[in-house]
Structures are given as C-alpha cells and as structure tokens.
Amino acid sequence: QKAGQLFSGLLAMNVVFLGSAFLSSMIFNHVAITLADVWILLSILKVLCLCWITYYLLGTSRQPHAVLYRDSHAGPVWIRGSVLLFGSFSILLNVFQIGYSTILIQCKSRVEIVFPSIEILFICTQAFFLWHHSKDCIQVQHNFTRCGLMLTIATNLLLWLLAVTNDTIHMEIESQLREVERRFAGKAPVPHPYLGNETTSCICPNTTICKVFQKGYILLYPFNTEYCLVCCSVLYVMWKNVGRRISHHVPHIKPQFKLHGVVLGPLLGTMTIIIGICVFMMYQIQATGSAPNRQVFVMYYSYYIVLLPLMSVVAVIGTIIHALEKKELDTLKNPTRSLDVILLMGAALGQIGMSYFSIVAIVATDPRDLLNSLILSYSVLLIFQNITQNVFVIDGLHRQPFVAAAEARHAGHAGQHAAASELPGEEETTTSGKEEHTQMSRDIEREMKEEQNHEAYDQRQVSMLELGQEIRKASLSYIHSYSHLSWKRKALREISFFLVLCNIILWVMPTFGAHPVFENGLEKSFYGYSTWFAIVNFGLPLSVFYRMHSIGGLLEVYITA
Amino acid sequence: QKAGQLFSGLLAMNVVFLGSAFLSSMIFNHVAITLADVWILLSILKVLCLCWITYYLLGTSRQPHAVLYRDSHAGPVWIRGSVLLFGSFSILLNVFQIGYSTILIQCKSRVEIVFPSIEILFICTQAFFLWHHSKDCIQVQHNFTRCGLMLTIATNLLLWLLAVTNDTIHMEIESQLREVERRFAGKAPVPHPYLGNETTSCICPNTTICKVFQKGYILLYPFNTEYCLVCCSVLYVMWKNVGRRISHHVPHIKPQFKLHGVVLGPLLGTMTIIIGICVFMMYQIQATGSAPNRQVFVMYYSYYIVLLPLMSVVAVIGTIIHALEKKELDTLKNPTRSLDVILLMGAALGQIGMSYFSIVAIVATDPRDLLNSLILSYSVLLIFQNITQNVFVIDGLHRQPFVAAAEARHAGHAGQHAAASELPGEEETTTSGKEEHTQMSRDIEREMKEEQNHEAYDQRQVSMLELGQEIRKASLSYIHSYSHLSWKRKALREISFFLVLCNIILWVMPTFGAHPVFENGLEKSFYGYSTWFAIVNFGLPLSVFYRMHSIGGLLEVYITA
C-alpha cells in the first residue's frame, strides 16, 4: 500500500514539476514557450485524465466488490455543491471565451476554440465523477486508480497555477491599459495575454455581445481558480481512501442543518455583510476610477479594523466554550478532517506571510502616518484573526457531534444506537482476505435486513395502539430539546454562524476585485514592483481559498455543535 | 498534547514569517532595512534561545522524573558527530570574521565584532545541548519546552535563510568582481555584502593573515548552512518526543559498523571519488579562470553521465533485493525515521525542480548541440537517480535490522532477546497517571537489576569451567556468520557502501564551488538572470543538503542490512 502511494505521489510530483517549469518558462521567456505550448501540454494531460475517469466510471467501479465501503466523512454536500457551482461557472467562462474567439476569428487561431472545448468536456466529466464517486473506497486495481487520481490532481494543480499566473498578469495588463486609455482617451480591449502581439489588430467590435463576453470573462475568472483547488482536495481524499476498509459498525447519523434558536449571529452577520457590500461598492467605484484617493483606503481599512477584532474575540470565546464543554474528542482516523486541518493552516500561511511583509514595510518607512498606521493595525489584526479562527475551527472539527446522540434519542432507539456508535472504528487496511470479508459483509447485510423486518413487524403491532402516545411523546421531546439547547451549544452556534457570514463577505471582497494590498502602492514602492507582485501572486489566491475553506469548516462546526 | 504542539508550531511560524519578511526587505530594499537590522533581530532570538537552553540544562532536565525515557532512534552518532563537526567549522568561520573585522576596524563598526561573538556562544551552547540531550523524551513542563524548542528551530531556520541568501549573493558579487578585476587588472577585495558602500575604502592590507581570513571565510561558509539544517532536524525530533512515553520492553541492540566481506563497493566508490576529485580540480581551475571554455563543461557533464546511470541501476538492484528478501517491516512509531523520509523527499525536490527547469530550457532552445544534449541527459539522469535512490533508502529504513538478531544469537541469549524484541512497542502518550507510571518503571528497574545480578553470578560459576569452550564456540560462530553472510545481505552492503561514496563526491563538488548550472550560462540566458538566480538559490542548498542527508540514510541502510 505504502509503495503504491509513494509511486503515484512521485508520478504526480514529476508532472507538477514539468508543468511548473513550462509555466515559468512561459512567464519569463515569452518567445521560446508560448501560452499555446502550455495549453497543448495541459490538453494532453486533460485527455489522459478523461480516459482514466471514463475507464473508472465504466470499468473499475462496476467490477464486483469494487466499492464495498463508502467514507461517510468524504465529500460532504457543501463540498460537492461547490464543485457543481464553481464547475458550472467555469463552463460558462469557457463558453464566453469560445464566443469571444469566434467573434475575433479573423485574428485568432483555431486552437483558441479547440482548447476551451476540451476544458468544458474535462470540467463536466470531472464534476460528474466527483459528484457520484467522491465517497468511494475502491478495493480493486489499487495502483492504477492511485496513479489516475494523482494524475488528475496534478492536472488540476497545474490548471490552478496557470489560472493564478494568468489572473494576476491579467490584472497587471488591465491596470496598464487603464493608463493607456487615460492617455489616449480612446477605447482599448483587454487582450489575451501572451498570445503574441495581436493586441493592436484585434479590437473588439463595438457590439454588446463582445462587451458581455469580455466582462463575463473577467467576472467569472475567480471561480475557475476555486474550482481547481476544490477538486484537488476532493481527489486527494479519494486517493487517501483507495484500499481503505471501514468497519460496518459505525453508523453515521448525519446531523441536519437547523436554524432554531439562533438569532444574534445571523443578525450581526447580515449587518456586517450589508455594510461590507456598501464599503466594497464605494471602494470599487473610487479605486478603479482615475486616481484612487486616500479617503477610500481609510474607509476600507477602518471597516476591517472594526470587524477583525470582533471576529477574533468571538473566536476566542468559542475556543473557551469548547474547552468548558468537556465533550469527548473524536479521535477516529478521518482523512477528510486531516486534510481540512492541513488546508486551513496551509492556506492561512498566504495571508499571514503577506501581512508580515506589510508590517515590516510600514515599520521601516513611516508608521505614524494615518493611512500607514491603519494598514499596520489591519495587518496585525489579520494575523491574529487567522490564528484564532483556525484554532477555533480545528478545535471544533475534533469534537464528537452532539446532534447525533440527540437524534438517536428522538428515534427511540437510544440505547441501541449509542452502543453501536461507541464501538471504536475498527479499520482494516490490509488488502488480503478479500473473499472472507465480502462473505462477512453479506452476512451482516442479511442480519440487518432480518432485524429491520422484525422491527417493522413489532412496530406495526404497537403503532395502532400507541400512535397517539408516540406523537405526544415526540413533540414533547422536541420542545424539550429545543428549550434545553444548552447555552453553550447555543453560543457556539451563534458564534459559528456569525463567523460564516463574516468570512463570506471577506471572501467576496478580494474575489471580485478589491486588492488594496496592491492598489495602495505602499508595499509596491518599498519592495519594488516585481517582488511585491510575486508575493501578492502567492498570497492572494491562498487567502481567497482560505476564506472559502473556513466557511466550510465553520459550517461543519455549526452543524455538529 | 495536540494543543501544545499547535501552539508552539504557531509561535515558530510567526517568528519565521517575521524573520523572512525582514530578510526579504533587506534583499529588496537595502536602504530601509540593513544587514545590521537583521543581525539585531537574530541576536535577540539567539539570546532568547540561549536563555531557554540554559534553563533547560540547569532547571528542567534536572527535575525529578524529567527524563524517564530516551528515544534510542533519535540523535544517532553520525548526526551528533556532524553537529560537532559543522559546529566547530562554524565557530572557526566566526573567528575568521572577527579577525577580519578587527584588521579593518577603522572602516567597520564595532557591532561586526559583537555579533559573531554572540553567534559563537550560541553555536557552542547549542552543540553541547544537542550532544547531551538529543535523545530526551522530557516529561515535565511540556508546553514551555515545546515553545523553547520551536523558538530554537525558528532561529536556526532564519540563520539558514540568511546564510543561503548571503552565500549566493556572495557568489554573484564574486563573479561580478572577477569581471571588474579582468577589466582593470588590479586587485579588489571581497567586500561584505549589504553593509553599506565601504567597499572602496575597505581594502584588505596586503598581509597574509588578512588573505587567510578571507579565503577561510569563503571555504568554511558551506558548513555553516549545513550546521543550521542539521540542528533543525535534531531539534524537530526532540520536539516530537516531548511527552512521549516509550515502553521499556524494547531493548535497542545497536548494530555495529563492520566492514567484513565488503570489497567491490568500497573499491568502485574510491575510484569514483578519485576521478571525481580530478574532474573537480580541473573544473575549478578552468571554470574560475578568465573565460570558461566548453571543454571543461563537457568533461564535467560526461563524468556525471557515466556515474548517474550506474548509481541508478545499483539502487534499482538494491530495491529489487529488498523486495526479494521478504524481511519483516518495522512498523513501530519512530519520529526520527518519519522525519528522515520527509527530509529525503523534500530535499530531493530542490534538485528535481532545477532539473526540470533545465530540461524545458534546453528543449525549447536547441537540444541537438553537443553541450546541450549533455546537459539534457544529465538533468534527466539526475531526476531518475534521485528517485531511485530515495526509493532504495526509504525501503531500507523500514526493514527490521538483521544484525540485531545475529548479535543476540552470538551472545547466546537468542531466545530471550528475540522474544523481547518481538513484543510490539506499546506506546502510551497520555500524560495522566504519571505517579503510577514512575512507580512501575522503578519496579521494572529493580527487577532488571536483580536479573542482571543473578545472571552475573551464574556466569561467574560457568566461566571458569567452560572458558576455553566458549572461546572456541565464539570464534567458530564468527567464522560461520562471516562466510554465511548471505549473498543478498552482501550485495546490499556493497550497494549501500558504493552509494555512500558516490554521494560524498556529489556532495563535495557543489559544496566547494562547482556550480555549472550557473556557470554554463544556458539557463541564465533563457530565464533571465534574476529568475534563474532565484531558482538556483532555492534548489542548490537543498540539493547539497540532500546529498548529505542521503549519506546518513545510506549508512543506516548499510548497518542494518
């Protein structure tokens, strides 16, 4: 097993390195390696992935005993939903691109229609694959499946890298164009970067549809990067689950998303979002205008400086409540959770790194200026907020879900279920003895069916007699559990809901174009244009991903609280 | 426990980020942040570490029940030896620097004597600490110790970062100076980078001692970088071992380093080293001369192209023999080994990344040129060699040591020891129930002592009578085991010894100044000076560390084979 993981990991590493070398060559030497070359490489990879996915869907997964176990933690609904959502936006993006290229067909090559088509096919197939198979613990063709998964992960990573470098260079070009525009007071289109110097000849005709394609392309771009990263994380969990065997004894009672009793968090959060959107609008109008004035930056940073300490304090309170609760810790093996923790910590590094660079730059120049002191406190608070939120979420993810027990009691099988769920999750990861195992599992299934029939028979007898009593009992217990939702659980839910809403607005702002770290010009002049550009290039996409990922983590904390 | 690890990890992360922001500011904005500022920051960190180490040596480790267990895998002799070796070279380096600054005291500030003094104190204390305490599994003041260790790790990492950036920029300055020298045919000293523009006023007087200080400084520099990394890895293992409890039932029988029966490997390896040194000498003389000609590059790369496939093939054969042997795998928890595996894979990334960049550059320019095709095959072979060697070493590290059993049989206690070593290592990482545990361990110690006394008494009775017979038996068993060293074990030893020697020469060449990736000019012109410089800056120190680390790993494989 280890050997298979090592081998497939090495495969992915080599593909990623080759791809990044290609990408860097394209960035630093436009002439020798063009964007078309990179696209050819990526298309080859995509076609290989498509072949493997098709083979998996039609061959591997349909073999007998291929998927005996499903990891109930893997691929929760919100992850699969975001795969679908971001996937459909990415498809739209590619459709726009095809449309744009078709209008300007006279100066663009045919391949610019072929590549997006392959991309669309790849996104559709992958989304379908992930929606249906993200929980699989495949038991056949281990090594081939591992290699296929790793190849797909590598392809997605490279697509992300391309999107990130493209996105930021696109930003750069846009800002340069704005200057040109200002100078000539004419209208210039947003050219596709790297693809030669057809900028001058390729001008978007003044039709609405062309403008729509251009604008849509710019708006939808961020979703594409998120799509790649989300796919990577789901695929990684699948890769970890290859060959894993999960005991049948752990029934996973899904806690439901319910809103009862939670008031303060949503209220405060919605207020934050509304104010945030106003600030964002004003920022966008002012900062993308002719000359960004100081006032708009002061407003933007003030908003953050009010919001961030609030979030930090709330997260600290949440952590303290977690410590007070003394709920038992969930120590079962759970690749999804381990990955979540690593991603939270890793993605936070981007934001924290950027903040430290800002801090050093400001302290070294002039920390007493109003705007500078605002940026300084903004950076410090951001670091503090990231750390406290991470501690809160990681702490919350390791708690046993509370609702599970309550639900079980509701259903009236409390004793039985509790006994079952208290059994330690015996995990066997050996791959031998497949035959006996499937025999065993069939036996268990038969037993379970008999038990169910028996229960059903019993209940039918009972139900006629005690129906009224049952209903009364159920409604009583509901009211009971509702009113007795302890203050600790209530507070945890309020806190996590509030943090979810805050993270949404903090995700929206950088995703849709507010990049004050770049636009305020302070760090840019301190580190020099290209250095600061590289730092932002690394940090910003990670911080956007961090916000999205912590929304997921916080939702999980909310549900299990 | 997890909380303590998380907290101390966050501390280290923040320190490292702050330090790297300082370093980057120094590199990209010489005026605002000078090298002196960075030194002040690092000196503060060093003093904090010194305080903690002193407290640990005098306070924590002397408390009752502080060190009940020692991790026998941690801090093997070759690691502690290299700490001492590199540490003493680093001290020498600092002495040279102090001497150099004292000679040029009229144009240098006093702090340039103060900082190296602090550095010397830090290196001495740390080396002493690591020599004596690297095996400790400390049981008191967990969190404080974790934070102290993490602070020391962060400081060492920052020292490494500073050394790496300094080292390469030093290279750059040297190469620029050579040009200046050529132009003016005069003599210019090697200035200290960053420390303002005293270059012109600070010329080394034409005394021998000043030249010695300069040359020694340049020669000893690489050891300093290695020292920091080695310290980091030892400290990390100590950090992982804080609060760990190890069962007393697993006696660790140290396999000895013996050379009997191994001939072919050392012979071939020594030949390789001798040829390598000749190639290196010629390269150094030619390439650092006025105009490096193609011939010397052809010679250098040819040497590698002959050597690398040989190493790869040998490693593959070794892996196959490992697979044939069917020795049981060692699956006990072992932080030292996990770290070794991660470091091997991580450090290899530097070399592999650089190779991929070279490949893309060559393929995109002109792969048919003689020198280019040599570089191309060199890069491909290097990737292949790194991967095969990693697989071989990782495979070898996970095998049960063979010698242990043989030694045990020698001693005549075969049954007893084998039974003891087959017991699974029961590890308890809970921190509660300390009292009972220490009670238990005292009981066990008393028992063991009694047993030993008993054995000794028995043996004394027996010894007088059967001494002659014993000696005869021992020598017979020695000859027996010597001749019956199975061909598989013999082959494994030959292979690992050969690879050790090869890695030594591959370590010596880049460490002492052969950097053809930089001097051949191909990639430099393709990616542009600064980009390629950054790539080499990242890759080269890692590849040097990789060679050193794989020497350690291969020695372990040799001993346990």
UniProtKB/TrEMBL annotation, chains A, B:
Residues 433-442 have a biased composition (Basic and acidic residues). The keyword Transmembrane helix applies. Residues 415-442 are annotated as: Disordered. Its main location: membrane. GO terms for molecular function: proton channel activity. The chain crosses the membrane at residues 12-32, 38-58, 78-101, 113-131, 143-163, 218-239, 259-283, 303-321, 341-364, 495-514, 526-546. GO terms for cellular component: plasma membrane. Keywords: Cell membrane, Hydrogen ion transport, Ion channel, Ion transport, Membrane, Transmembrane, Transmembrane helix, Transport. Pfam families: Otopetrin. It is a multi-pass membrane protein. It is found in: Cell membrane. Belongs to the otopetrin family. This is Otopetrin-3.
